[in-house]
Amino acid sequence: MSQQGYVATPPYSQAQPGMGGYQGGFGPGPAQPLYGHYGGPAQAFTAPPTGLMKSPVTSAAGMPPPPASSQYNPNVQQNGAHPQRYPVPPVVSSTYGQPPQPPYNSMASPGPPPAQQLTNQMSAMNLGNYGQASMQSPPPPASTVAQQPFQAPPPVGHPQMLPGLQSPHMSPQMPPPQSPQASMSMTGQPMAAPPMGGMGRPFPGAPPPGLGGFQQPGPGVAGPQGYPQQAGQFGGPMAGPQPGMPGAFPGAPAPMAGPPQKKLDPDSIPSITQVIEDDQVKHGGQVYSTNIRGQVPPLVTTDFTVQDQGNASPRFIRSTTYTLPCTADLAKQCQVPLASIIRPFASLPKNEAPLYVVNHGETGPIRCNRCKAYMCPYMQFIDGGRRYQCGFCNCVSEVPAFYFQHLDHMGRRVDFYERPELSVGSYEFVATLDYCKNNKPPNPPAYIFMIDVSYNNVKSGLVKLICDELKTLLEKLPREEGAESSAVKVGFVTYNKILHFYNVKSTLAQPQMMVVSDTAEMFVPLLDGFLVNYQDSRAVIYNLLDQIPDMFADTNESETVFAPVIQAGLEAFKAAECSGKLFVFHSSMPTAEAPGKLKNRDDKKLINTEKEKTLFQPQKGVYEQLSKDCVVQGCCVDLFLFPSQYVDLATMADVPSHTGGSVYKYNNFQVETDGEHFLRDLRKDVQKSIGFDAIMRVRTSTGFRATDFFGAIHMNNTTDVEMAAVDCDKALTVEYKHDDALSEETGAFIQCALLYTTVNGQRRLRIHNLSLNCSSQLLELYKSCETDSLINFFAKTAYRAILNQPLKNVREILVNQTAHMLACYRKNCASPSAASQLILPDAMKVFPVYMNSLMKTAPLMGSTELSTDDRAHQRLSVMGMGVEDTQLLLYPRLIPLHNMDASSEALPAPVRCSEERLADSGMFLLENGHSMFLWLGQASPPELVQSMFNLPSLAHLQGHVPALPELDNPLSKKVRSIISALLEKRPNSMKLQIVRQRDKPEVLFRQFLVEDKSLHGGSSYMDFLCYVHREIRQLLT
């Protein structure tokens, strides 16, 4: 039984130094691949009838299974060789992992020199069409020899080959290419491939050359059979990370010498910027009506207006797929996660109507008797309108007398359009006292500002900056639509080793300070005058904010406490019987003797070991209990951190990340350069729309249910999602599993109900409904997938998994599942085509770009150069992100500014995130929602530099420029307006960093070019695509 089309010469059957360095990242999984979700049962890829594909657990007939080994085992996946199960004539049996013996040696022809090999491999990629747009793809070779597989029917039992492409997985008795040239003759003049209709529509016969989805052979395509291929990180020989750069692939081969290599044209592989642009052209500026079940909305990046006609706006809820598979078996087969990402408080643009508030008075909202779902468009009225059947559990209930209404000739209620809960997908109910704590109406929430006044913060000018800002910011506290002033109360605390509370009662002439030095038994020393209405006490508060910086000007106390500070805020809310938010401004690790004292546990020796996960786990004890207590009281914590060294963010951020809070981090804060950046965050944070003391439940129609929840949340049981607060930027991701079959006819319904307290103290229910299609055809599921939502789900599952699993396993699972989803599409939905083609579903064609980018994010990269706190911070921020935010984070926008029309309103079209797109004479803006760079090419023309910075040349641009100077010329105005529009739009502020090409800080900028190789060892998009393609072929062989 031969393992592969080419024959390995003896030296290559042993391990080679630097071969196949998968060990750190993507490698052969365990012997039985765990393709399920993290922690789920191991699932194997459903094997087709014997003779078509190898089963994942046993190896080819009569051979022992490959040894499972955590290290890369040279004999298991030697150059991607896997035993084939094509029907073959008896072969001299050879031990597993050894080269096949002489019978086929005669076929081997000498291979090209190694450096040429990659060229051939890349140029032989036959990139045909993957979607409606016609694309350039290399022409079929002129030689008729290679065309033979199309003219004569291929031998039975062989995969059909595309002209000129040779699969490395050919079975041995397939005729070898007649000449080495034939197999490489794909290089050369591009030819437009015929446009294809829908993606992957089956059509009889062999696909015409250049057709049949996005086609790409795997590694080793070009070399003739006998050439022993050396595996690089992803199959093709390629340079590993630079020496001394610890990477995800420790065993990567050293860079190979040789002539410069021709690369495959990157324009011919799927591009995110193109997908975004196409969607904008198709849906931009249009009205999207939500009246059709299971319709896929425009992308998050597209500007469109939503008209709610029975399903919640995609701004509130998006799904990974809008067609659920009918059975659990189908779901298991395709491995596409079924999940929705819910942003219950998403901000709506000015031109979309705010949610209607429905008030049924004393009786409260109408609900199904059995499953307690709220009245919604999926309830069917019967019996002349006297009863209704629940769309979720099919239970029939009586319509209350006050709610009765006749039905029209279509069986719809006559008042259908007058009642939001019957005609729209999202609306609110006023909740009755039954929905309130202790059956009494809640008090309006309060905001407490807690300022660390230790030596560093006073000396850096931070304390003064905060106090000055609060004077104006408190005028803008959130308030209900139409209310004159905010009902939110405010309080102030300063602290270092001890806590100072301030009485700012409106009747006082001067604020009074009360000190609590016993941090072990925290209590609030005053009830009256601590939480006040800002408008009433404005004069006293001004007075206090003026005094705080002077009061502590001479402090030399550098130790701080942290847990008691949160405890104090919590006690204040308890005493005032209200919910609210703590704004904590803190700078260092809490080392003073007190509950929650932390010690430095940052240990770089743990990186890339089994114990690395402990770096992300919060320290148990005080903070865990504090989180629970905060959630019960509805006390949300927002943490503003100003660290100059390690602060154990994983533990300090534990309370914010379970109470619906946010963590903002400003490393080595300096007022001059970071002040404005921090204040933008603070202003947004104080003003954003928000609900408090929230509890949410997701109900589904019969056949499936919500099983898992990811977000800045707390779960006391398996169904109730508790959030001390939920704001307009927080989203939670919900995964669903089948518990029965679904019906194509009725579809599937989801209802998310959120009970919360408004900023003026009213208890409300916010309801979002979404209906999805169901199908027993996998093609339908793949057609209605949404890549942006899928990657949000994968980011959150992976970031949760790294708390309990080694990074290596998590990365492996991600690659395995990517390959699995795409292999299932290839096997069940795509038209037949050569194995050497990579075929992607149209809706998921850019999924590999996002997945590769996710695997290169700091939390998933085991590199000692990354700060542990930064990794923990990114891990926690992503857990609360919506689809829009993860999309941008994983694929930053790179906008060319040097050649735009300064007089036009339009934003220049973004280009792909790759170094190849930068121009030496250009100026580019890059942003990902958290970082922003203005990159200047070294050959930037003097007039460009003059109009942007008022300097004669780039060389005069010295040191750090915190902001662009305000110059009176069209280019400067346009660039500044683009930047301020982006800062306005994104949830977080971004600090503009100006970098010159080839300057040292450019290294920071480069790690955001996600299509390129990463500094810390992550692969490029192209390499990842080759690798995934090889994995897919192994699943299908």
TrEMBL record:
Residues 691-775 form the Sec23/Sec24 beta-sandwich domain. Residues 442-686 form the Sec23/Sec24 trunk domain. Residues 1-114, 131-189 are annotated as: Disordered. Residues 71-81, 92-108 have a biased composition (Polar residues). The keyword Protein transport applies. Signal peptide: none annotated. Residues 180-189 have a biased composition (Low complexity). One of its GO terms (molecular function) is zinc ion binding. Residues 907-979 form the Gelsolin-like domain. GO terms for biological process: cartilage morphogenesis; COPII-coated vesicle cargo loading; embryonic viscerocranium morphogenesis; extracellular matrix constituent secretion; intracellular protein transport. Keywords: Cytoplasmic vesicle, Protein transport, Transport. Belongs to the SEC23/SEC24 family. SEC24 subfamily. This is Protein transport protein Sec24D. It comes from Betta splendens (Siamese fighting fish).
